[in-house]
Give the backbone structure.
Amino acid sequence: MKSGIYGILKAEFCDFDAFLSSKPPLHYKVYKIPKRTIGFRTIAQPTPILKKIQKTLVGLIEPHVKIHSNAAAYRLGKGVKENALSHINSNYLLKIDLEEFFNSITPNMLFKTLRQQHMDLSDIDKYVVEQVFFWNRSRRKNGRLILSVGAPSSPFISNLIMSKFDNDISMICDRKGVSYTRYADDMTFSTKERDVIFSILADVRRVLKNNFGNKMNVNELKTVFSSKAHNRRVTGVTLTNDNKISIGRERKRYISALTHKFKLGKLDISDIYHLKGLISYARHVDGGFIRKLQKKYGVTTLELIKKYPSEG
């Protein structure tokens, strides 16, 4: 990038200087959605023009940096299935969640990571990166800038920020014979040795502190130890005791019940779209269940669901 980030974006977008002066960190629509358990998650979605600039800026930075291979989210060819498959041969499992993951990430964390990856930015480029990628939640003048949940650039930035942590913790896990993956803020550790898994939590706390000080912390309420004696789930995918993956008994029953109603013509349009998504997910994760579903309700029924016209 010989002309620099600022120069490229200025050439790409008309009135880019005027856009920068309009305080991009305020160009967000904010709303809340309920969490799976209790409380709400705040989503800050950028305006269409800011979203377009964010995507362009990611494209400028991405070729010059590396994301660790153990990062399983928001990457081509990886997802919840691949994340779960990394742990199917284990006996013991540890799941660790990070508090306020996206909202904990600040411009200085990103600049530090870029320096570590030998990408030095000029002052004007730092200003552009800060203004384009980060959100002013308080809306106050000179308010603290953080990463938002809802921006298309946030997943890439979060993986980039965590690249050194992923490398450091992976080296520790390799020495201990532990498998490690991270899906956004969900970290999973697995091993065949019972006693080893209990030492990992302290390692995670230490490596987080070494990399981020007190700005990135473990959500202690969501730390879970489990074994083959219990139901083991990794990012929503069930690990079976015969070293396979499954969508889980309850979800299978739910999909089967909806398929039965569809065959009887008792599902409304929104429920059909919902079922279509569930079957697509099941087909990706658990092909054996799909074959059983076809046997029970007929191949034609599942084809009708698959080919049901999409919304819009």
Summary: The two ends are 40 Å apart (CA to CA). The chain has a mean pLDDT of 92. The first helix runs from residue 4 to 12. Residues 28 and 46 are 4 Å apart (CA to CA).
